[in-house]
TrEMBL record, chain A:
PANTHER family: PUTRESCINE TRANSPORT SYSTEM PERMEASE PROTEIN POTI (PTHR43848:SF2). Keywords: Cell membrane, Membrane, Transmembrane, Transmembrane helix, Transport. This is ABC transporter permease. It is found in: Cell membrane. Its main location: membrane. The lineage of its organism: Bacteria, Pseudomonadati, Pseudomonadota, Alphaproteobacteria, Hyphomicrobiales.
TrEMBL record, chain B:
Residues 95-309 form the ABC transmembrane type-1 domain. It is a multi-pass membrane protein. It comes from Mesorhizobium onobrychidis. The keyword Nucleotidyltransferase does not apply. The chain crosses the membrane at residues 35-61, 94-119, 131-154, 160-183, 195-215, 244-266, 287-311. This is ABC transporter permease. Keywords: Cell membrane, Membrane, Transmembrane, Transmembrane helix, Transport. PANTHER family: INNER MEMBRANE ABC TRANSPORTER PERMEASE PROTEIN YDCU-RELATED (PTHR42929:SF1), INNER MEMBRANE ABC TRANSPORTER PERMEASE PROTEIN YDCU-RELATED-RELATED (PTHR42929). It comes from the Bacteria. It is found in: Cell membrane. Belongs to the binding-protein-dependent transport system permease family. CysTW subfamily. InterPro entries: MetI-like, MetI-like_sf. The keyword Chloroplast does not apply.
C-alpha cells in the first residue's frame, strides 16, 4: 500500500460515494417507520400517526408463527447439512492437489451462480420425475444445496491461512489423525465455520425463489411475505414482519463479520 | 513396520494414543491419504452431483419432450418441437426484453458502484473502511423480499417519492416521464422504470465488492504518476483507472446480469404486465402446466450465461472475484 498519509478525497467523489451508500440504506430504514404507521389500507407518506398496536396484532397471528417456525427449522437443518458438506469439501480442496479439483469448486459455486429459478425448477422437475411428494425435507434439500457454498468459502479461506506445519507438529508429538483434528484443526477453523454457518442460516432464512418450487403447500416466512405482497390481507402486519425479518437477519451477519474480520473477509477479500 | 509397532512402547506424547479401531483408522489414513481424500469428497460430491446436477439434467431432458395440445399431457418422446415454440415472436419478445433490462441494470450498477468502490479502496482507512464494508454487506445480505417491499412503499402512487416531488414542485416531471410509452405507466410501481430501479438497488452490492477488490490492487502511485505527467482527472480515469478496474466490473456484471435474467419476483411485484424470462418459466410450469416449454425457457439464461462466463474468463474477470 501507499506509504504517505491518506490524502483527502475530491469533494465530488465524497458526495457520490455518500449518495450511493444512502441509496443502499434509506429504503430499509423506511420499513421501520412504516411498522408504526396508523394507516391500514395504503402506503401513504408521511404516516398520519404512529402506533405500536400492530406489534400486538402480529404477535397474535398463528400463521405468522407457523411460517416463522418452519423457516427456523428449515434453516437450522440446512445449515447443519451445509456445515458438514462444505467443511469436508473445503478440507479436501485446500489441502491437496488432485484431478478434478477445479470441477469440484465449480460444482459448489454453481447452485448460486446460476439464477435461483433454474435451481428451483430443476429440483421441482426432478421431484416430479422421481415422484417425491413435497415435504419439509424437499425444502431442506434445496436450501442445503445452495448453502454449502458459503460454508465452503469461509472454511477454504481459513484452511489456506492455517499452517500445515502445525498439523505435522501435532502428528510428530504422537497425536493420531482424530486427535489432531479435534485439538488442532477444529479450534483453528471454528470461528470460520461459525461464520459460515451464520451466513448459511441467514441465506436459508431469506430464500424465496427456490422455496416456491420445492415447498408445496407449506409456508416459510418469505413465502408468507410473498403471498402478502401479491394478495395483501393486512398491510400493517406485513410491515411489522418485514421489520422483524430485517432485525433477525442483521444479527447473524454482524456476528459473522466480527468472527472473520481479522483477515480474509475484509476489504472485498482482495488478495 | 510390525516390528516397530509391537516392540517399542509409544513415545511419551502430549495426548494419549488411541488404540483399537480409531488408531487403526488413523494409521490407515496417514498411510493412504488418497483414501481419506476420497472419503472426504464423497458426501459433498454425491449430494451436489445427485441432487443438483441430476436435477439440472432432468430439466434439460424435459426440454426435449413436448406437450400434447389437446390432452395437456406431456409426451415423453425426443423432439425439438418445444424449442420451435420457444422461437415464436411472443417468446422472443420476452427474451429480448429481459436481456435488454439485464444489460441496462448492469450498466447502471457499474456507474453507481464505481465511486463507492473507489472511495472505499483508495481513501477509506481503519474504522471507515470497516464501516464501508459493512455498509455494502448489510444491504447485500438483508432480506430480498423486504427490499422489494420497501421499494413498493417508495414507488407507490401515494408513496414517499411522489410526496417528495410534490414538495419540490417537480410532479410535472414525474407525470411527463410516466406518460412516455414503454418506460411509463400508471405509477412508478407499475412501470418498467420501477422494475429497473429495484433491480439496480437489489443487485448493486454484487457490483461494488468485485470493483472494490480490483481497485484495491491498483497502486496509488500509478494515479499520482498519471497526474504528475499532466493528465487531467478525466484522462487518468479513462486511461489508467478504468482499464484496471474493468476485470472487476466484468466480474460484478456476471452477478447483476445473471440475477436479472433469472428473477421473476421483482417484475411480478413492481412492474408492468409484460413478462420477463423468469415469469414465463414460472407461469409455464405452474398455471400452463407446460413443463417442457418452461424447461426450454430456462435453457436460454444458461446458454447466455455460458457465453458470458466464457467471455469474462478471457477478460480475466475470475481473478477479480
Amino acid at each position: 500500500m501507499r506509504s504517505d498519509g491518506s490524502p483527502s478525497a475530491p469533494l465530488g467523489l465524497k458526495i457520490a460515494a455518500a449518495c450511493g451508500l444512502l441509496f443502499l440504506h434509506l429504503p430499509i430504514f423506511l420499513i421501520f417507520i412504516y411498522a408504526f404507521t396508523t394507516e391500514e389500507k395504503s402506503f401513504v407518506w408521511p404516516p398520519p400517526g404512529l402506533t405500536t398496536q400492530w406489534f400486538a396484532v402480529t404477535w397474535n397471528r398463528p400463521d405468522v408463527w407457523q411460517a416463522l417456525s418452519l423457516s427456523i427449522r428449515v434453516a437450522a437443518i440446512s445449515t447443519l447439512v451445509a456445515l458438514v458438506l462444505g467443511t469436508l469439501c473445503a478440507a479436501a480442496v485446500s489441502r491437496t492437489q488432485f484431478f478434478g479439483r477445479e470441477t469440484i469448486s465449480l460444482l459448489v459455486i454453481l447452485p448460486i451462480a446460476l439464477p435461483g429459478i433454474i435451481t428451483g425448477i430443476a429440483l421441482r422437475s426432478a421431484f416430479s420425475l422421481a415422484e417425491i411428494p413435497f415435504s419439509f425435507w424437499t425444502i431442506v434439500l434445496g436450501h442445503a444445496t445452495f448453502c454449502v457454498v458459503v460454508v465452503y468459502n469461509n472454511a477454504v479461506a481459513r484452511f489456506r491461512r492455517t499452517s500445515g506445519s502445525m498439523i505435522e507438529a501435532s502428528m510428530d508429538l504422537g497425536a493420531d489423525g482424530f486427535q489432531t483434528f479435534r485439538h488442532v484443526v477444529l479450534p483453528n477453523i471454528a470461528t470460520a465455520l461459525l461464520a459460515g454457518g451464520m451466513l448459511a442460516f441467514a441465506l436459508s432464512f431469506d430464500e424465496v425463489i427456490v422455496t416456491t418450487f420445492t415447498a408445496g403447500q407449506q409456508q416459510t416466512l418469505p413465502i408468507w411475505m410473498l403471498e402478502e405482497l401479491i394478495r395483501p390481507r393486512q398491510r400493517p402486519v406485513t410491515n411489522v414482519v418485514a421489520m422483524v425479518v430485517v432485525l433477525v437477519t442483521l444479527l447473524p451477519i454482524l456476528l459473522a463479520y466480527y468472527l472473520t474480520r481479522d483477515g480474509d473477509q475484509i476489504a472485498g477479500s482482495g488478495k | 513396520m510390525t516390528l516397530a509397532a509391537t516392540q517399542a512402547k509409544p513415545a511419551p506424547a502430549l495426548l494419549p494414543r488411541a488404540g483399537g479401531l480409531r488408531g487403526a483408522l488413523s494409521d490407515l489414513f496417514w498411510r493412504r491419504p488418497k483414501l481419506l481424500l476420497l472419503l472426504m469428497l464423497l458426501p459433498p460430491v454425491l449430494w451436489l452431483g445427485i441432487v443438483y446436477i441430476g436435477s439440472l439434467f432432468a430439466l434439460l431432458l424435459q426440454s426435449f419432450f413436448s406437450i400434447d395440445e389437446f390432452s395437456g399431457l406431456i409426451n415423453r418422446e425426443f423432439t425439438l418441437k418445444t424449442y420451435g415454440d420457444l422461437l415464436q415472436a411472443a417468446n422472443l419478445d420476452i427474451i429480448l426484453r429481459t436481456v435488454t433490462m439485464a444489460a441496462l441494470v448492469t450498466l447502471a450498477s457499474a456507474i453507481i458502484a464505481f465511486p463507492i468502490a473507489y472511495y472505499a479502496a483508495r481513501y477509506a482507512r481503519g474504522r471507515w473502511k470497516a464501516l464501508f464494508y459493512l455498509g455494502v454487506m448489510l444491504p447485500l445480505w438483508s432480506s430480498y423480499l423486504v427490499k422489494i417491499y420497501a421499494w413498493k412503499l417508495i414507488l407507490a402512487k401515494e408513496g414517499i417519492l411522489t410526496w417528495l416531488l410534490a414538495k419540490l414542485h417537480l410532479l410535472w416531471l414525474l407525470d411527463g416521464w410516466l406518460s412516455l410509452p414503454i418506460v411509463g405507466g400508471n405509477s412508478l410501481s407499475v412501470s418498467s422504470t420501477g422494475t429497473f430501479i429495484v433491480f439496480v438497488y437489489v443487485w448493486l452490492p454484487f457490483m461494488i465488492l468485485p470493483v472494490q477488490a480490483a481497485l484495491e490492487r491498483v497502486p496509488g502511485n500509478l494515479v499520482e504518476a498519471s497526474s504528475d505527467l499532466g493528465a487531467s482527472p478525466g484522462q487518468t480515469f479513462r486511461n489508467v483507472l478504468f482499464p484496471l478496474a474493468l476485470p472487476g466490473i466484468v466480474a460484478g456484471s456476471i452477478f447483476t446480469f445473471s440475477l436479472t435474467l433469472g428473477d421473476y419476483i421483482i417484475p411480478q411485484i413492481i412492474g408492468t404486465s409484460r413478462l420477463f424470462i423468469g415469469q414465463a418459466v414460472y407461469s409455464q410450469q405452474g398455471t400452463a402446466g407446460n413443463i417442457p416449454l418452461a424447461a426450454a425457457f430456462t435453457v436460454v439464461p444458461i446458454v447466455i450465461m455460458g457465453f458470458y462466463l466464457w467471455g469474462a474468463k478471457r477478460m480475466g474477470a475470475f481473478d477479480a472475484l
